[in-house]
Amino acid sequence: MNCPECSTQNLGNSRHCKSCGLEFESKEIESKEIENPKPVRPSYSEMLKTRFVLWGTGALGFVIGQMIVGSLLGGIGFGILGFGCGYYILSKRKRN
């Protein structure tokens, strides 16, 4: 591929000219980036919010289960149910 700016011969899959640094427009490269976007890593505060919601709903379910059923197994069962509700809440939340 010849650079349109300085006419230097470059490799066919180059993104930039090796001589002048001009960025080439390549539909092949752009389509690959659209098909396989890079995953976005959540921030530390986002991870803390997620953990707070999950463990908070689980703990709340445990306490409610202890009060209603009056046994450890009832508390554990409601805790698992609360944890599942927290997971559902997080799965329905919109992400930017």
Present the secondary structure layout.
Blueprint: H1 27-35, H2 44-69, H3 72-92
Helix pairs in contact: 2-3
Give a summary of the structure in a few sentences.
With 96 residues, the chain is mainly alpha-helical. The chain has helices at 27-35, 44-69, 72-92.
Gyration radius, in Å: 27 Å
Q: Note the beta-strand portion.
A: under 5%
Sum up the overall morphology in one term. Answer: rod-shaped
- Poorly predicted spans: none
Classification by helices and strands: mainly alpha
Give your account of this protein's structure.
The radius of gyration is 27 Å and the shape is rod-shaped. Helices cover 58% and strands 0% of the residues. The protein has 96 residues and is mostly helical. Helix 2 packs antiparallel against helix 3. It has 2 domains: 1-38, no CATH class; 44-92, no CATH class. The protein has 3 helices and no strands.
